[in-house]
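forwarding from the other thread:

> can someone predict this with zinc ion?

sure thing
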Amino acid sequence: MLDNDKMTALALAPPAAGAMQKLADDLYWIRFTLPFRLNHINLFAFDTDDGWLLLDCGINAAATADQWQALLDGPLAGRPICGIIVSHYHADHVGYAGALAARTGAPVYMGAVEHKQAQWGLGQTDGEYAAMMGAAYQRFGLADTHIAAAQNAGNYYRFLVGDLPNVTIVTEKDQFITKAGCWQIRFDAGHSPGHMSLTDSARKLHICVDFLLPRISPNISARLRDLDDDMLADYLHYLDSMMDCPADWLIIPGHDWPYFGGGVRAAQLAAHHAARLEQLCTMIGDKPASTNDAMLALFPFEMTGHEVFFASCEARAHLNHLVTTGHLQHADRKNGVDLFAKC
Ligand SMILES: [Zn+2]
């Protein structure tokens, strides 16, 4: 019996390496390792009349190639790969898309916004990317060591993402037809600018990918291309729309485990961001603060360079939201560092 006020994990172990775990008649769960603190990603295979339709790809790395090889030689063997869907432009989802398309000959499906974003990321030279990161970190007021590291790192996105294949752009008018169902496409902004989730409402199945994760809060980051953009407003709007998700729908995420109780989770995540916004408002008080100050308040622990990127951009997204909602304003820059002050 499902409780309306609780999240309930699906009682099913994650798939082992090289194996798939059945989630519905025509939907299979795959798990790949990732070399980050978030150490895995969930990928999916749909059974269709034309063969296997895959959802998401992993980063562009030798370990990803090996993990696909095990599946292509194992549970996916004997039938063609008829398509590859990419949910969003983040490296762990799109990174291996080009190589996988080349290996299988399958068409790749993506939303236009995410496709543009991935193309833009891949199009930056090492010099351009380093200059942009360095300038952003300077405006954030990060420590000199982080600024220097960013200026020397080149295009980190390109390090994790291979060249894009030809992509077939899909819209919310398109559907993916599988053996036992029909999947409606939905795009939202927040964690990324045009993230795709898939819903089979007749079977109460919602593949939320990275937008409604059960354990961690999806990263909500200011964009390097527009540091003042309020991505959190878009994400809170999405969470609002998911609050009345029925308790008996199975929510299927891109990390961690499938669960019931998407509405409860949406409310938890909204409360999490509200608490962070409140924490920053309290912290800033009478003294203007930088993005670095906000980051240290929200993430008070040792971080790798990779984590500092996400933490600083997430702190900035919260500051931006406090500006657009009239709680904070931009104060005069000091030594090139953006400062935020109470209104
Ligand atoms: Zn993501």
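Residues 262-284 form the longest helix (23 residues). thats all i got for now
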